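Q: Can someone sanity-check these two? First one:
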Amino acid sequence: MTGDVAVLGAGMHPWGKWGRSFHEYGVAAAREALEDAGLEWGDIGSVVGADTVRGGYPGYVAGATFAQALGWQGARVTSVYAACASGAQAVNTARAQILSGMADAVLVVGADAAPKGFFRPAGGERPDDPDWLRFRVLGATNPAYFALYARRRMALYGDTAEDFARVKVKNAAAGALNPYARYRKEVTAEEVAASPVVADPLRLLDVCATSDGGAALVLTSLEYARRHGVTDPVRVRAVATGSPTYPNTLLDLPYIATDSAAGTDGRTPGFRAAIAQEAYEEAGIGPEDLSLAEVYDLSTALELDWYEDLGLAAEGEAAKLLRQGATGPGGRIPVNPSGGLASFGEAVPAQAIAQVCELTRQLRGTCGPRQVEGARVGITANQGLFGHGSSVIAVR
């Protein structure tokens, strides 16, 4: 399936720890997206909700939960779950409905009310669930995986704790300019180095928080956008939702082992690189065409991995790209001009949608002091548990 769909509206509820129900955040984001699109709730023919397993039964049927909260009006409802990739899966579902003619205008919504501290698996005894097993067998929280990746970069490429701190300093400066961000304060490298160790070599300021928040998009057909007077909308051109390919030789959350590469040719791209490759191929562009990227910086070191996975830098060259200032404000390819998870924290079903909100605003040129000059093409990237890939390319 190929074809562009228009982003007519983008809306968010500010990230934080607000202590309210997830559907409040989603409804606030949805109303802002509808207002941005110039549409009424009754104009929406379909609602796609990104699920949250932390919201009880309403979280598992998020599409219907948001539709009911906004007021039943007969729209088709769909609910999707793909962990951190849920928002991109929701965008992809909405796009498929539009391109197939099932709906002209679709509201995509994701929101979460996250616990304090580490994420943990859903309740119950499930010995066939890798997410449950990695806690029960290894006691491995998410930062333990982030630290393994950080150590890998240090061992293979010579990256340093100072390089990781540079990522945080860059993203915190961007987040300080974003009214939706939870943390709106610049950070120094010395403050990163002085923060407590969470999982060596990563410190507290290297690791993203867990947050409450919501994000929403109004997606439409291009013809629908033209009928409503929008002749040059931001367009979603590609959505990658691929899964790993055998052999998967790098440890991914939540797994505790890898495939053997014995007997293979060794040329299979890694999972994250394959996600980007799928998006580029569908969009008909390459990394050299990008104006900006929004990536899932679960940790500072993981952002550096994404530089290479997206083809912004050769293997082992990500820290060099960072040190040159290429991924910062005014650089050749700004990464996380929103502030990233460093400034937002994880509101899991909302974050991939929030990434597209940032692309939309950047491509419209409405981001004020954090605007990427001349932005025309943007990419998002993250991955969810259990092999859920996620990348969205938007163009103007």
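And here is the second, same format, sequence then tokens:
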Amino acid sequence: MAEVNKEKQHISLNICDEKLDIYVKGDQEAFYRDAAKLAQNTYSKYAELFRGRRSERFIAATALLEIGVKFQMEQANKETDSYNSLLQRLTSDIDEALK
């Protein structure tokens, strides 16, 4: 277990007035910090729109849903991109073979 901790480093993130102390691999720190920034910015956007009219839980759920939808859309685009890339390669190979 001590070996695992040597590979990881402690970072503190602030999201929605909560301090999160976590251990992450050094090469993943930037991803965690960027994700925390995205979460905080998305939450803040909905808090500004709904605070006082909706619960904090509703605000957090709405922000989480937006982030989830963005992730799903990016995943779908990646799948389409790889398919298009493969199709382009095959088309190119067929064109070369027909020459």
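A (reply): Looked at the second one. The beta strands are 8-15, 18-25. The longest helix spans residues 56-98.
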